[in-house]
Structures are given as structure tokens and as C-alpha cells.
Amino acid sequence: MAKGQEPSADSARHQSRQIGVSAPSLFKLLEEGRPTHQYQIYGRYWTTPRRMGRAALRYRQVVGEDVEVDVGLRGGAAWVFQREGQWRFYGGGDVLIGYRRFANGRESYRGGVSPLFGALFFIGRHVSLALEPRLVATYAHTQGGSSSRASSRVFSIEIDETALLILSVHF
Questions:
Q1: Cα separations (Å) of 102 from 73, 109, 123, 130?
Q2: pLDDT tens digit string along 114-165?
Q3: Assigned domain for 2 exists
């Protein structure tokens, strides 16, 4: 490395850890008087400049008359398949689990898988912005509450819009 030159953004030794938040969740923190509170935090550990382990925690709460809580946890791996200057393009997948308590007392437990594709742009040496659309396949089991149905099971496939934009710090 030349004198005065900073290490590259790919330096796994210097920036192997990454913590991020969903940009929409960050904006919700700034709003006041909103009945829905949703927070998502992401962690990534870069084992090499091209491979990362991933984990995320999501908490969503609707307050007011219809109190609802939704908690989710995901973990997985991703691989960078293209590097162009400040850009990193990657693909991978996550396994997810979750719990949701509805306003009527029903509870839902879910599990699933999520293949993903992402584009990460380094704004600076320690800050990045990622665009990460995901296809999510889940199986949910719902039970209890005041509904006439004792329990139900649902398999669904959808595009997850909650984590499309992620603001991260690398250290």
C-alpha cells in the first residue's frame, strides 16, 4: 500500500463487521404519532472480501386499540459475484423464523427460506447503502384467538418489500 493511501473497502481485516438498519425503519423512527413501530437491524460478518454470514432481527408493533406484535429472525450467507469500483453485487439466501400475535389473540408461527440478490454501494470507507429485494417462501401455522377456526396452515411466496434499502456501517 502506498504512503497516504487508505485500505480498500474490501479489506476483510479492517472491515469484516457490518451493522445496518432498514432505511424505511430509520425514517419511521423520525416520525412522531405513528401507530406502527417497526425496527430492523442487520449484521453481516465478511469472512473474506467475497463471502459473508448474515443475520437480521425485525420487531414490528402496532399500538392503539388493535395491538399487534411481529418478531422475526433470519440468518444466512451471501457471495459477492461482481465488484466494480465502489459497487458489490451479491447473491445468497436466508433461513427465517418468526412469531406474530394478532389483535384478536391469534398467534402465528412461521418458518421459511429467502433467496436474495443485492447491490451494495460504498458511500465512504465505512458506510454503505444496499438495495436487496428478496423472494420469501414461508410456511405459517396460526392458532387461538376469537376466530371460529381453531388453527390454520398457510404456505406463501411473496416479494419482501420491508428490507429493500439498507444503510450500514462497516468496522
A1: 18, 11, 39, 31
A2: 999 999 999 998 999 999 988 999 999 998 876 556 789 999 999 876 667 8
A3: no
Stated pTM of the model? 0.78
Looking at the DSSP assignment, which residues form a beta bridge with residue 60?
38, 70
Count up the domains in the chain and report the number: 1
**Is 11 inside any structural domain?**
no
User: Which residue in this structure is represented by grid cell 429472525?
Assistant: 73
Quickly count: other Cβ atoms within 10 Å of residue 155's Cβ. Answer: 9
Residue type, 31: E
Q: Where are the beta strands (DSSP E) in the chain?
A: 17-22, 36-48, 51-62, 68-84, 87-101, 107-122, 127-131, 134-143, 151-160, 165-170
